[in-house]
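Appendix B, record 7
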Amino acid sequence: MSTISTTGLVAAQKQLQTISSNVANANTDGFKLQTAKFASLVAADGRVAPGLGVRSLNDVTDFSQGSLRSTGRDLDLAMSGRGFFVTLPKSATTGAQSGALPGSAVDTSIRLTRNGSFKIDKDGYGVDLNGRKLAVQGTTAGNVEPARVECSKTVGRPPATRTLGYSRIELRDDGELFAIYDDNSFQSIGKVAIGDVRDPTNLRPENSTQFSYIGSAEVPSIATSGERGRGTVLSGLLEGSNVNLTDQLVEMITAQRNYHANAKGISATDTMAQTLINLR
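Structure tokens (predicted):
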């Protein structure tokens, strides 16, 4: 009984940690609900026998869409429908990073996210809060490259030249980003890359909102807004988490009761063992 209660105690603690993470990230844009999963311990001969205890499995991620809220910022992007924004590491340059072209070398530094909060850094790259770079579709189908703005440009002929800065970023209906300059001229940045996988269980959380794919089991295919079943990219909006706080608080109460029940089981076993020792 002590072993059963011990495994139950560990499982309840794991469940409480998962729930606590969900509650802490309830207001984190793009966060996806995690659910702790468990299974019965297997006997030495491979049988699943009752009474052996419980073991923890990997958390399961709920990729359902969170609610959208308006921010009014041109580089706050949201995805309505299926797919993920693609981000590249801080070191990525304008060189193409491999996506999921058949036979291509896959860049495992690619991350997928539903958190579309980006800004333009001092070098003109669109970056997230961690400095990872927003990816746009590359010149070769299936490849991606960092989104980059020419922050200023010189127009006219000497000596009557002048420098123009970009005033805003504009997203077109087809997912293409444009830099709009002071004279209302524009320059294409590229179409926002949307990554997707057939089996989301092949995605592994890297932090609260970023996911990587596991090994070579499946790699994300790259498309753009509205292509091949992808969702639509929207500007001036962010997707909130899909955590329901009421549900999580109910789950927390249940997990706490399980924890205390298993703790009492261990205590009862210790008491019985001590009683047997005293009878000798």
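Remarks on this record: The longest strand covers residues 162-171. Confidence is low (pLDDT under 50) at residues 99-106.
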